[in-house]
């Protein structure tokens, strides 16, 4: 009699599908770990990515960063090394084979403790300075991610094993093809670290008028160096980054706080309503109120379908 043993990928699919029983984004009882399920492709939507590791175990997704599009699926992982506003879209999903993924937020304060364990040559090698990259998932990183998911059902083991698994995941990322950028983000006075400081200031003061020379002075860079390295890491200029922050926050205000387009635009720093509407339509594909109306109708439809399924059950 022979027994079949599931592969790591199959086990990850089983764990995520079981815990994420319905479509949506699901936080877990492990800090920083979320799991995601979608049964159909979706429209491009805005998202704010923090330093994190994202692994798709079934399906595919595309992320638009600045003017670039990253596509990744079940054999890849997405590494985000700095806070980035993006557009994201589940591109491959079905009811029979839903999109399933996990995202684990990186505690960047733990990275410097691993510098001594990372080979100097490996630390220097980096295929791209981008703060968001796609790489092939290695068996070692997949194994660590699986053991992290297993802890969702093993609360007694969590206190001891979670810090060790988290440390291993960080180590695997640091020795990976784009680990150098992650390392440099936490190296004081490095250019990526200075760009990280610029990003933090923009996130806190996105509604203020932006003077590039003032921002460059704040992070101890020349204006030309700030522009060059900011775009190399974020795929955007500082002004484009600020614009995306403003538009995402305005969309949130209209959806969650029911502000009208004029009030939302003014609150995030736009003085001209027409400029806000133009830039919003260029970014999201529709004028503000048409976009918000479509999203609300979609949410109502989803809730109605779910209620119908529950009543039939």
Automatic annotation (TrEMBL):
<feature type="domain" description="HTH araC/xylS-type">
    <location>
        <begin position="196"/>
        <end position="294"/>
    </location>
</feature>
<dbReference type="GO" id="GO:0043565">
    <property type="term" value="F:sequence-specific DNA binding"/>
</dbReference>
<dbReference type="InterPro" id="IPR018060">
    <property type="entry name" value="HTH_AraC"/>
</dbReference>
<keyword id="KW-0805">Transcription regulation</keyword>
<dbReference type="InterPro" id="IPR009057">
    <property type="entry name" value="Homeodomain-like_sf"/>
</dbReference>
<dbReference type="GO" id="GO:0003700">
    <property type="term" value="F:DNA-binding transcription factor activity"/>
</dbReference>
<protein>
    <submittedName>
        <fullName>AraC family transcriptional regulator</fullName>
    </submittedName>
</protein>
<keyword id="KW-0804">Transcription</keyword>
<dbReference type="InterPro" id="IPR009594">
    <property type="entry name" value="Tscrpt_reg_HTH_AraC_N"/>
</dbReference>
<dbReference type="Pfam" id="PF12833">
    <property type="entry name" value="HTH_18"/>
</dbReference>
<dbReference type="Pfam" id="PF06719">
    <property type="entry name" value="AraC_N"/>
</dbReference>
């Amino acid at each position: 009699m022979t027994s079949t043993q599931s592969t790591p990928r199959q086990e990850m699919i089983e764990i995520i599908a079981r815990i994420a029983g319905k479509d949506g984004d699901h936080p877990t009882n492990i800090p920083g770990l979320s799991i995601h399920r979608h049964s159909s492709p979706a429209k491009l939507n805005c998202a704010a990515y923090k330093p994190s590791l994202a692994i798709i175990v079934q399906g595919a997704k595309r992320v638009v960063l600045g003017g670039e599009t990253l596509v990744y699926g079940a054999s890849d992982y997405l590494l985000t090394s700095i806070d980035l506003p993006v557009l994201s879209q589940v591109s491959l999903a079905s009811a029979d084979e839903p999109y399933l993924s996990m995202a684990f937020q990186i505690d960047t304060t733990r990275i410097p403790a691993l510098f001594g364990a990372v080979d100097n040559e490996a630390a220097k090698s980096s295929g791209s300075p981008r703060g968001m990259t796609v790489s092939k998932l290695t068996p070692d990183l997949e194994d660590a991610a699986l053991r992290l998911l297993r802890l969702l059902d093993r609360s007694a083991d969590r206190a001891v094993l979670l810090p060790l698994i988290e440390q291993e995941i960080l180590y695997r990322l640091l020795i990976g093809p784009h680990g150098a950028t992650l390392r440099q983000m936490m190296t004081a006075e490095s250019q990526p670290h200075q760009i990280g400081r610029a990003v933090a200031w923009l996130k806190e003061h996105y509604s203020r008028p932006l003077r590039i020379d003032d921002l460059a002075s704040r992070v101890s860079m020349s204006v030309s160096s700030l522009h060059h390295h900011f775009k190399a890491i974020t795929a955007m200029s500082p002004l484009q980054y600020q614009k995306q922050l403003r538009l995402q926050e305005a969309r949130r205000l209209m959806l969650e706080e029911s502000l009208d387009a004029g009030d939302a635009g003014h609150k995030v720093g736009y003085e001209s309503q027409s400029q806000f509407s133009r830039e919003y339509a260029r970014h999201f594909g529709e004028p503000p109120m048409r976009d918000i109306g479509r999203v609300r109708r979609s949410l109502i439809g989803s809730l109605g379908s779910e209620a119908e399924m529950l009543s039939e059950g």
